[in-house]
């Protein structure tokens, strides 16, 4: 899991953004069914990915967060759902936030 903290100061308004990468995905079933392209966006988290996200949910850096923003990709939404359940923060899903 990767974390990155970015401080922005625009027109006197400070904003802190915490970037978090989703947990490890499990592509096995999708590969067995020969999913390609955007079909791989349906991959859920692996058991290891769920463990990573449970650890992430306890990160003290998240205590300063006000909202969780996630892409609509399954692995990102599953990651966000763990964080939302642990923190009680609101979730905003951004469909245009995805890999290029």
Give the helix/strand layout:
Blueprint: E1 3-10, E2 13-20, H1 28-32, H2 47-57, E3 68-70, H3 74-87, E4 91-93
Parallel strand pairs: 3-4
Antiparallel strand pairs: 1-2
Helix pairs in contact: 2-3
Provide an overview of this structure.
The chain has a single domain, classed as Rossmann fold. The radius of gyration is 15 Å and the shape is globular. The longest helix is centred in the C-terminal third of the chain and has 14 residues, at 74-87. The strands form two sheets. The protein has a two-stranded antiparallel ribbon. The chain is of the alpha+beta class and 100 residues long. It has helices at 28-32, 47-57, 74-87, and strands at residues 3-10, 13-20, 68-70, 91-93.
